[in-house]
Amino acid sequence: xxxxxxxxxxxxxxxxxxxxxxxxxxxxxxxxxxxxxxxxxxxxxxxxxxxxxxxxxxxxxxxxxxxxxxxxxxxxxxxxxxxxxxxxxxxxxxxxxxxxxxxxxxxxxxxxxxxxxxxxxxxxxxxxxxxxxxxxxxxxxxxxxxxxxxxxxxxxxxxxxxxxxxxxxxxxxxxxxxxxxxxxxxxxxxxxxxxxxxxxxxxxxxxxxxxxxxxxxxxxxxxxxxxxxxxxxxxxxxxxxxxxxxxxxxxxxxxxxxxxxxxxxxxxxxx
Length: 271
Prior knowledge:
This protein has helices at 21-25, 43-57, 63-66, 69-80, 148-161, 204-216, 228-231, 259-269, and strands at 2-4, 7-9, 28-36, 39-40, 86-95, 108-116, 125-129, 165-169, 175-177, 182-187, 190-194, 220-223, 235-240, 243-250, 253-254. The protein is of the alpha+beta class. The strands form two sheets. Strands 7, 8, 9, 10, 11, 12, 13, 14 and 15 form a nine-stranded mixed β-sheet that branches. A six-stranded antiparallel β-sheet has the order 2-1-6-5-3-4. A hairpin with a 2-residue loop joins strand 1 and strand 2 (7-9).
């Protein structure tokens, strides 16, 4: 079962026109949300990022999206698809209508899909440093969708090199992010993560980790550092809405791990 512009329909009945602007121009964005124990995890933060993304793209969101009605309908969809205990929601929003580069309208269409899933594994990651592509800061780099091809090509390189993930750098060779996660490191009880101006996504887990650090009295810094900082850290880890994983090797070089700190963060964020 799908939720298309507010209506529940079977997947087999979904029909999108050839003029669909998401297909023709990648004219939209998406959110990935985890459903756990009959709740949309970090839902308020997802709504805020959707509003910011829509503003950046000059999209007019339907009232259903900006009201409390959407949350109720998404949980109903999760129940339809047996995903209330643990599920993965993808909410896609795109500019409606036709047109060429100049659109006919700014009103948004949307589609929600939910599938049952399982919590992410917590085993450490062995990552490589991406050579194919670099991140690029823009008014659209903080949310998901407009730069999808960048992450696809990084994923191709990951597969070729048989890595668990790839570290993406910006053009200045500064640490930016992983393929679908933000990256963090801790040194002397201070947390570091790349600044948004390195071109990384403003991840929902990122927002919550920084928020927790401030409450816990841990200094959180958004920085412009080279990869050398990772090798000097006490622990390096990735995080997105699915969970947190430590990184214990970059290329051929092993790095430090601190399971106690990661357990503290996981507990605080409810992972």
